[in-house]
Amino acid sequence: MTARAGVAAADPVAETIVSYAGALGWELEATKLSLWLTLLAVVFFEVGAASSLIVVAALSDAPAVRSRLMT
Fold it and tell me: How far is it, in rounded angstroms, from Cα 66 to Cα 35?
C-alpha cells in the first residue's frame, strides 16, 4: 500500500469495514475509523489487564499480595 503526499493510508481492516458500512448505506472515512480501531484495541487490553489483577486479588490467600495489588 503506497501513500501519496498529504494522504494517510488506512489499514486493510478499516478499509474492509468502510466497504461493508457503505453497503449498508453508512458513510465512513477509513483514516478516522483506523484511529478508533486502534483505540478500541488498546482499551480492550487495558480492561483485560485490570480484570486479571482483580481476579488475582480475589483468589489470593496472601494478604501481602492483596494489599500490594490494591494500592
Answer: 36
Splitting the chain (71 residues) into consecutive groups of 10 residues, what average pLDDT does each group show?
54 92 93 92 96 84 63 64
Take residue 19 and report the three cell numbers written for it: 466497504
For the packed helices 30-59 and 12-23, what is the interaxial angle rounded to 10 degrees? 110
Q: Taking CA 30 as the corner, what is the angle to CA 17 and CA 3, rounded to the nearest 5 degrees? A: 130
Burial 54-63 (b: 16+ CB within 10 A, else e): eeeeeeeeee
**Distance (Å, rounded) from C-alpha 9 to C-alpha 20?**
18
How far is residue 45's CA from residue 35's CA, in Å, rounded to a whole number?
A: 16
